[in-house]
Amino acid sequence: MKTYRIKQSSPLIFIITLIFLICSPIIIFKDVLNETHNKNFVMILIVALFFGVYYLARFVSTANIQIKMDELGIKITWAKQFLLQKRSDFEIEWIDIKEFKIEPDRNWDKFKIISKYYDKFEILHNTDYDGKDDYSDFIKDFETKVKEINSVNIESNNINRAPNFYESTLGLLFAIFLIIILLVLTIVMIKSKYHISNIAAIIAVYFGALYYIFEVYNHRKNK
């Protein structure tokens, strides 16, 4: 039996906590900040506040789970739960798993198990923790174990790997749409001699679109 220690993240808790912790001090100390003549001090204070709030929000929105995997299935234990959360530990046997999905992302990777009889089990993993916990090892070993199980199962009992968004038809259509947008944008820029002052926005659009297109190509190539 192998144990994996993984940091589970909640984007919703992170965003709510971040907004609350940023807005509260600003509202409370608004009059004090307005009366302060040292603008450099105010800027330093705001930057320090932002970084402090960011790491505090990330801490609050992170839980720790331990996953044990063996020949029978996997067991999930909550080592540290989210704020105000009280969930029970549970087990999922291999024979109860219908399918699983691995959804990579720039910010939060998602791993989901869909059971034949129970509720789904889901991990949202902040990519800031890549290499700092066992998430990558767990994903790799889980896929290896599923292939091993499927090799001895009859096809009707196989554990299926559901396509993620990059591998889906909708994901492919969106990539084609972005390619068309980039081509049109390039033609418009060349013909209108787009002003250099907008170069930062253009680079951001190109970077985001090309990143997505590459992810679609990479995932569909490896299917």
Instruction: Give the termini separation.
Output: 29 Å
What radius of gyration results from the CA coordinates? 23 Å
**Biggest sheet character:** 4 strands, antiparallel
Give helix % range. Answer: 40-55%
SSE topology string? EHHHEEEEEEHEHH
- Would you tell me the structural class of the helices and strands? alpha+beta
Proportion in β-strands: 15-25%
Summarize model confidence as the mean pLDDT. Answer: 83
What best-fitting shape do the alpha-carbon axes yield? flat
Low-confidence regions: none
How many DSSP helices?
Answer: 6
Major sheet: order of its strands?
Answer: 1-2-3-4
| Beta-strand segment tally | 8
Descriptive overview:
The chain has 223 residues and is α+β, with helices and mostly antiparallel strands. The chain has six helices and eight strands. It has helices spanning 11-28, 30-35, 39-60, 135-152, 169-192, 199-221, and strands at 2-9, 62-69, 73-80, 90-93, 97-103, 108-115, 121-126, 160-162. Strands 1-2-3-4 form a four-stranded antiparallel β-sheet. Helix 1 (11-28) runs antiparallel to helix 3 (39-60). The chain is flat and about 75 Å long.
Key descriptive features of the protein:
223 residues; four-stranded mixed beta sheet; four-stranded antiparallel beta sheet
TL;DR?
This protein is of the alpha+beta class and 223 residues long.
Helix and strand layout, with pairings?
Blueprint: E1 2-9, H1 11-28, H2 30-35, H3 39-60, E2 62-69, E3 73-80, E4 90-93, E5 97-103, E6 108-115, E7 121-126, H4 135-152, E8 160-162, H5 169-192, H6 199-221
Parallel strand pairs: 5-8
Antiparallel strand pairs: 1-2, 2-3, 3-4, 5-6, 6-7
Helix pairs in contact: 1-3, 5-6
